Target: Late embryogenesis abundant protein LEA-2 subgroup domain-containing protein
Amino acid sequence: MLLHDARCFLNEKATVRNLLTLLQSIIHYPIYMATITNVQLSIDNVSGQKRRKVTVKYQLRFNPREEAAGTVFDEKVVLRGDDPIFDDERAIIASTFVKAQPGVVSRSFSKMVSQNRLDEDGDTIIFGVPVLVLRDELYARVTLTPFEPRGARADSNVVTGQFGPGA
Model:
């Protein structure tokens, strides 16, 4: 449909109406890709430890083409600090692969993360006493990227010696 509309636009006089029809087709043209929904982050205390249990849960849904092809995705779950200027990565919760499959796929990853990594706004501590304790704002980002095989490379051992004409 989109290709037909574009050809009609190019073959006819460029009228405002034709242009609007083409733009409307582009806007409503379906782009199918895997979707990530219901991303939930929880951070729980673990008694007697200076680490917290960080859990990220979410759901994946693949399109029929990805399912049929068995497309493999690079799946990355990152804990990020939410700041006005720029958001920074605080910890990688998971870095793995997932193969497209039919239906809704529920995912859950947990990792123990140090309080220092979670303290993204940096508390002020003097002589072991917290003087200024700032609120930290954290969120999880889940990324799916279609896996693309890359070439491999390896180097041999280094051989030393005299190889010039004077040897």
About this structure: The mean pLDDT is 80.
